[in-house]
Amino acid sequence: MTHESKQDAANGSTPEDKHLRRCIVTRHSQKREKMLRFVVSDAGVVTPDLAGRLPGRGIWLSARRDVLETARARHLFSKAAQRSVTIPDDLYERIVIGLEMRVVQVLGLARRAGQARTGFVKCREWISSGHVGLVIHDEDASPDELRRLLSGPQRSLV
């Protein structure tokens, strides 16, 4: 048993606890993947850190809009940062845009790795072969075409 694991055992914490973060609003601990990280810039502006790479102490929130609004209303960012901070009016929109960009980047990587397909015929072949775990479609896609895509291969009578 290492010195670090002896300390953890004495404190009653587990190695998994090191990967948990506590929301400043709900006070619940969750895995980092389920939360949003914010940092305060040198200028005192709250900035979402969706990639988890910005320098500075992280301020963690559960990934829900009501939690974000509560943190803003109760001035919890200032309390967590122990200084006066500025919260941009469009913080929610910045988060949404940032998350959308991350999804597009991940899909691009998956496509280049052969783990994602685009196009009706290719997608239909993959769906019928059982390789699909998730189907993402445009919100204005035709419901009939989506049903046709998901119905599996069409058998010809000839």
From TrEMBL:
<dbReference type="InterPro" id="IPR035931">
    <property type="entry name" value="YlxR-like_sf"/>
</dbReference>
<dbReference type="Pfam" id="PF04296">
    <property type="entry name" value="YlxR"/>
</dbReference>
<feature type="region of interest" description="Disordered">
    <location>
        <begin position="1"/>
        <end position="21"/>
    </location>
</feature>
<dbReference type="InterPro" id="IPR007393">
    <property type="entry name" value="YlxR_dom"/>
</dbReference>
<dbReference type="InterPro" id="IPR029064">
    <property type="entry name" value="Ribosomal_eL30-like_sf"/>
</dbReference>
<feature type="domain" description="YlxR">
    <location>
        <begin position="21"/>
        <end position="95"/>
    </location>
</feature>
<protein>
    <recommendedName>
        <fullName>YlxR domain-containing protein</fullName>
    </recommendedName>
</protein>
<dbReference type="InterPro" id="IPR037465">
    <property type="entry name" value="YlxR"/>
</dbReference>
